[in-house]
Design brief:
- By secondary structure, the protein is an alpha/beta fold.
- The protein has two domains: 3-152, Rossmann fold (3-Layer(aba) Sandwich); 166-456, pyruvate-formate lyase- activating enzyme (Alpha-Beta Horseshoe).
- Helix content is 39%, strand content 17%.
- It is built from 19 helices and 16 strands.
- Strands 2-1-3-4-5-8-7-6 form an eight-stranded mixed beta sheet, sandwiched between helices.
- Helix 15 links the parallel strand 15 and strand 16 (352-357).
- The longest helix is centred in the last third of the chain and has 27 residues, at 430-456.
- The chain starts with a strand and ends with a helix.
- It binds iron/sulfur cluster.
- Residues 190, 192-194, 197, 199-200, 234-235, 262, 286 line the site of iron/sulfur cluster (SF4).
Length: 457
C-alpha cells in the first residue's frame, strides 16, 4: 500500500516562543486531510509543535501544511525529502497566498481548500498523468520547474465531510495530560473583510458562509471521547440562526466548548444564552484594539470600543470567558497605545488575550498598502510570526518602539498582579482561566528565550 506522511510544519522560532505554553489546541488540518485520504493509503502525521520531523524516513508522498512564518522551514523539510526522491505536496495558508513561490520548493501545490482536490491529487500521484489539464472539480497547472499547482473550481461543500482522523492528533508537553482531541469545524468563511486578515483570501467567496449540516456536526461530536470541544471555525456565529440551532442540538450532549466569533454575536443575547446553556465556556473574539479609529481604518468597524465593558459583563454573567485578540501596530497607534490598552483591559476584567504585532501577510490589503508606501522593511517570512519582529515601518513610531511597546504590554498583561486584577473582576471559569493565564505567563518566558537566542545567533 502507498504511504503518505503528513506534516504540520512550524518554524523553530515560533516553536521556541510556544514551548512553555500550558494549554494548546489540537491542530486539525492534517487529521482532516487524512480523513479525506482513501483507505488504500497508509497515513501518518507529525505535528512539529509536538515532535521534530524525521526526514530520514521514506514515503511515497509527503504532505506539508505551513502558514507564512513556517514556510522557509517547510522548504527546508521539503528539500530533505526531495533529495531522497520523495515527492512533496505543500498546502495551507502560505501555499494559497504565494503558490508560485511554493512551487519552487514542492512537486505539488494545493491552492485553497484540499477537499475538492485531494483524491484527484493522490490519483495523479499514482499514475503521473500528462501536464496541464482540467478535471471535474479543479485545474492543474504545470510550472517551468515541473511542479503542479492544483486549484479547485468551486469552494468545498461541507455536506458529507469525512471525519477527521482524530487518532492522528498529537499532544505533547504539559498538554498531554489535559488537552482535548475534540476538534471540529461547523462553518467556513467570515462575512467581514478586515484588511490584515488572510481568511478573505484563503477561501474563494469567503464572505458567503458555508455551513455543515447541524446533524452531521452533532453526530461527529457524539463520537468524541473527550468532554471538551474546540470549533476551529473563523466565525462560528456569523449566521445567527445556524449557530443557535447548533447550540440547541448541542445542549443534550453536555459538552464544554469554545470557538472563535465576533463582537456582533456578543450583541445577540439569545445566542449567548443558548451558547452558555449548551456548554460554551469561552469565546475567542478579535477585539484587536482600544482605538476606534484604528479599527475603522482596518475595516473592523463592527468592533465598537464603547461596548467592550458591557459585552464582557454580559458574557461573564452567563459564565462565558472571553479570550481576546489584541494587535499592536495599527495605523493610528502611537506610543500611548500600550499603556492605555493594558489599563483598559485590566479595568474591564478581560479574561485572557492573544497579544500580537500586526503582521501584513502577503496578499492582504494591509500588505499591499504598506508595500506601495515603501514601508515593508523585512521580507523574511520567518519573521512574520507576530511575536519576534516588526516587518514594516509603523506610522507613528519606529519599529523598535513598536516591538518594545508590544513586549512591555505583554509583560504587564501577563504579570501575576494583572492576572489577579483581571480575574478578580471576571470571576468566570477560574478553574481553567487561571491555568490558561499562567500558561501565557510561562509562554512569555519562552518568547524571551527565543528572542535572546535570536540576538545571540
Ligand atoms: S472578523 Fe476575524 S475572521 Fe473575519 S475577516 Fe475579520 S479578522 Fe478575519
Amino acid at each position: 500500500m502507498p504511504s503518505l506522511h503528513l506534516i504540520t510544519a512550524e518554524d523553530p522560532l515560533t516553536l521556541q516562543a510556544r514551548s512553555r505554553e500550558l494549554i494548546r489546541f489540537p491542530q486539525l488540518t492534517m487529521p482532516l486531510l487524512a480523513g479525506l485520504t482513501p483507505p488504500d493509503w497508509i497515513v501518518s502525521h507529525e505535528d512539529e509543535i509536538v515532535t521534530p520531523v524525521d526526514t530520514t524516513r521514506r514515503y511515497d508522498l509527503v504532505g506539508i501544511t505551513a502558514a507564512t512564518p513556517g514556510a522557509p522551514h517547510a522548504y527546508d523539510l521539503a528539500r530533505e525529502f526531495r533529495n531522497h526522491n520523495v515527492p512533496v505536496a505543500m498546502g495551507g495558508p502560505h501555499a494559497t497566498l504565494m503558490p508560485y513561490e511554493v512551487a519552487q520548493h514542492a512537486d505539488i501545490v494545493v491552492v485553497g481548500e484540499a477537499e475538492p482536490l485531494w483524491r484527484h491529487i493522490l490519483r495523479d500521484e499514482e499514475r503521473r498523468p500528462p501536464g496541464m489539464h482540467a478535471f471535474h472539480s479543479g485545474t492543474v497547472e504545470v510550472t517551468p520547474q515541473n511542479s503542479r499547482i492544483y486549484r479547485h473550481a468551486a469552494p468545498a461543500s461541507l455536506e458529507g465531510l469525512p471525519r477527521a482522523r482524530r487518532e492522528l492528533i498529537q499532544h505533547g508537553g504539559w498538554n498531554r495530560w489535559w488537552a482535548t482531541k475534540g476538534a471540529i469545524i461547523a462553518t467556513r468563511g467570515c462575512p467581514h473583510k478586515c484588511d490584515y486578515c488572510t481568511i478573505p483570501h484563503l477561501y474563494p467567496r469567503a464572505q458567503q458562509m458555508r455551513l455543515r449540516p447541524v446533524p452531521e456536526v452533532i453526530a461527529e461530536i457524539r463520537s468524541f471521547r473527550d468532554k471538551g470541544v474546540v470549533f476551529w471555525d473563523d466565525n462560528l456565529a456569523a449566521v445567527p440562526a445556524y449557530a443557535k440551532e447548533l447550540c440547541r442540538q448541542l445542549k443534550p450532549l453536555k459538552r464544554w466548548w469554545t470557538s472563535q466569533t465576533t463582537m456582533n454575536s456578543l450583541r445577540d443575547q439569545e445566542f449567548l444564552q443558548l451558547a452558555a446553556a449548551s456548554g460554551c465556556k469561552a469565546l475567542f473574539v478579535g477585539l484587536e484594539s482600544i482605538d476606534q479609529q484604528s479599527l475603522n481604518q482596518a475595516q473592523k468597524g463592527h468592533n465598537r470600543v464603547q461596548d467592550y465593558r458591557q459585552l464582557l459583563n454580559r458574557c461573564h454573567d452567563l459564565g462565558i470567558a472571553i479570550q481576546a485578540g489584541i494587535i499592536f501596530g495599527f495605523e493610528n497607534d502611537d506610543l500611548d497605545i500600550f499603556k492605555r490598552t493594558v489599563d483598559i483591559f485590566g479595568d474591564i476584567g478581560l479574561d485572557n488575550a492573544t497579544i500580537s504585532l500586526l503582521v501584513p501577510y502577503p496578499g492582504t490589503p494591509a500588505y499591499t498598502m504598506l508595500e506601495q508606501q515603501g514601508r515593508i522593511i523585512d521580507k523574511n517570512w520567518r519573521h512574520y510570526n507576530g511575536k519576534t519582529h516588526v516587518v514594516f515601518r509603523p506610522r507613528h513610531m519606529s519599529p523598535d518602539q513598536l516591538l518594545n511597546g508590544y513586549e512591555w504590554a505583554k509583560t504587564q498583561f501577563y504579570s501575576i498582579s494583572h492576572i489577579a486584577r483581571r480575574l478578580a473582576k471576571s470571576r468566570t471559569g477560574l478553574w481553567w482561566n487561571i491555568p490558561r493565564n499562567l500558561g501565557y505567563h510561562l509562554g512569555l518566558r519562552g518568547e524571551v528565550l527565543a528572542r535572546a537566542a535570536l540576538h545571540q545567533a
